[in-house]
Amino acid sequence: MRILVAEDEWILADWIAEGLRKFAMAVDVVYDGEAADEHLAVHDYDVLVLDRDLPGVHGDEICRRLALSGADVRIIMLTAAASVRERIEGLGIGADDYLPKPFDFGELAARVQALGRRSLAPVPPVLQRAGIVLDTYRRQASRDGRFVPLSLKEYAVLEVLLRADGAPVSAEKLLEQAWDESADPFTTAVRVVINRLRTKLGDPPCIHTEAGVGYRL
């Protein structure tokens, strides 16, 4: 799942990002509205965690533009304004969810996960294929009843492959969905993680390489 955190309080923004990364999410961080616009134009995000009072371009304006454009990204708006009227306004301009500050991180993470599931093609909370069972709530995997211990990055890549439901996924798509913007597009990181997954998932081989296309589960 690819997330953009747009929050002008640097410490808060970095804290949110670090916490979400522990849920195997790829997270980019910006600290003003102009940077948020630039990132949204380049990357396909599943969820935008948006501070309503961003400097540069106001959060309300970003939210309105996304709603009018029909973008698939889901928006959870953060704000110090907690009145009912202001929450109604935030939802009225296109936000999918609204969370007043201060907030509990566990609640934010749960809301982001819920929005992420809505931003993608509808899928069950448990993904299954080739004897693999992936519990997206507990972030646990098994194959043929055998528990498979996964790193956060291995989990993220396996989830993308399972969501593809047998269709090939390019290395570029895996980088987009499982890594943040710091990932080098020429890196061997995808191949390394795929090889580790193959080893952990065991025989018979279930992740196949299609030359010039990508990887298929």
TrEMBL record:
It comes from Microbispora oryzae. PROSITE patterns: OMPR_PHOB (PS51755), RESPONSE_REGULATORY (PS50110). InterPro entries: CheY-like_superfamily, OmpR/PhoB-type_DNA-bd, Sig_transdc_resp-reg_receiver, WalR-like, WH-like_DNA-bd_sf. Residues 2-116 form the Response regulatory domain. Residues 124-217 bind DNA. GO terms for cellular component: cytosol; protein-DNA complex. GO terms for biological process: regulation of DNA-templated transcription. One of its GO terms (molecular function) is phosphorelay response regulator activity. Keywords: DNA-binding, Phosphoprotein. The keyword DNA-binding applies. This is Response regulator transcription factor. Residues 124-217 form the OmpR/PhoB-type domain. The modification 4-aspartylphosphate is found at D51. It comes from the Bacteria.
